[in-house]
Amino acid sequence: MAAKTTIKEALQALRRLLRDPEATDEVFTVIRGFSGNSFEKEFQRFVRSESGQQILANKQELLDVLKSDLSQYPANSLGGTYSRFLRLEGLSADGLVDASDPTQEVFDEPMRAKFGRRQRDQHDLWHTVTQYGRDELGELCLLAFTYAQTGNRGIGLIVFFGALKYRKMIGNKVFQAIREGYRNGKRCAWLPGTVWEELLALPVEEVRQKLELPEPTTYWACRGGERFASLQPL
């Protein structure tokens, strides 16, 4: 397994990030350095769950499913909505691999490695079901949601400093939207253990209800009531 990032290295990366918010490589270092044992706690929860055992027994990777022909799914389904979101945003399932941290921990143990890859590959599915867009505020809210789901303090730290930056643009409303994202992440089902493969054909609204995901109304209000069209079922 790759060497862990130290707190000192993470603090140095945080200082560089504060000087240059566009230095996205530093984000990964901050998240790794402050993550503590959050990954292991998540993994242990995952392997203890029925869905986790089912996923680990399945040799197929989530990425392979997401790279398959998604046109087989109805337009109002999770698979159809996810596919449209990728298309309209100029994304691809492979893009998640390309954009991931090249220095991330590599696990020799196959089950941990699979769980780590699955965490990476479901990011845009989280966008799709939470209805947080890829605008700066939407990404911040999804990070707050992710912090609630994973307990990774590095992600929480990025959210805090990102909110301070974005506050200059829209004022204190950013904190209300981020709190909503965090609360939604606490109240809903635990998404890392979701068997997405079984949900792709279902209507996306049914999936959101099944996962107990509230609508991000505060986020929409900050956007002037505008919703991301690519995240709504046709």
TrEMBL record:
Domain of life, source organism: Bacteria
GO biological process, any: ubiquinone biosynthetic process
Protein name: Uncharacterized protein
Originating organism: Aequoribacter fuscus
Organism classification: Bacteria, Pseudomonadati, Pseudomonadota, Gammaproteobacteria, Cellvibrionales
